[in-house]
Amino acid sequence: MNIWKRASVALKDGTSLIAADDLLKAAVVKATNHDEFSIDPENALFIYRHVRATPSSLKPLISAISSRVTRTRSWVVALKGLMLMHGFFLSKTTAAESIGRLPFDLSAFGRQGNSRMSSRSGGFNLFVRAYFAFLDRRSILFHDGNRHRYDEESSVMIRLVIIRKMQVVIDSLIRIKPIGESVRIPVINEAMENVINEILEIYGWICRRIAEVLPNVNSKSGKRQADVALKIVAKSMTQGEELVKYFVFCRDLGVANAQEIPDFVRIPVDDVIHLHEIVWTDKEEEQGGEAEETDECENSEERTKCVEGKEEEEMERELVHEIDDLIKLDDEEKEEDEPSLAPPVLDVPDLISL
Fold first, then answer.
1. How far apart are CA 17 and CA 12, in angstroms?
2. Span 314-324, pLDDT tens digits
């Protein structure tokens, strides 16, 4: 970095440091400085240790990060702010489960303002938007106030829904891609290592849960559960192939923890055939069952069971709609941020003279 750029970075961050009125806010400024060639792990670790020791400090810290990223037009500051937030999850900070939806919105980052500046940093802005889309979705899914959580007492349907949601999170992860030589910039490379770590953890969780839940899906489970399970299996098969391509892409870019491509688990063909048969057979029997159910409900002794069964069915229907809405939203975001055929002009610094 040339001397003028260093001076500019020092001036911008210096002003914010002067305005910081406590050690934590100063640590946030230092951890999210304007220097794309400098990572400040010390201040990030200081923040994480402080939150683990004093969970009540999380709220003012998030407020400080939110204020920092919403006021900036620098992709470096915005990305470092997202990485700092992501670190709460990667470091297994329990208090982070209370965050829920992120208190700031970077979904349109870089789309407004100076058009010349936006065109020069277009690829980086796209990277920030993709990282935000993933992190916001992850934070919502892991929120401790969620109505449905994955545990031993959860119904098979709730487990299936959560697995499907986690697959959508994986989709948002593999849309985080640096463009051109930008991965050689330290902050981008660090962000990509975070992405790979997250993929390995979440995809491993998905594989374990699929193996755990699928044996519980049978002809007695009902068509709706089998239908969701079949979608999960189909997605798992295509997602495994997409992940292999993504890891090859990251390996070729030199991302350190993507040099070995994992052996992504494949679902046995017999399980796919079994689920397919449950979904597509006995349709006439299902239609006939509706009439029988009506007769049973007329019997006062069966009325309570009938009501409970309808309530469970209604809950399952709502969960399926919830998945469909999430996937539709995810597809819309994918189309909205699809890079154009003409590569953007990137403001890549002179790495040779460093």
1. 9
2. 555 666 555 55
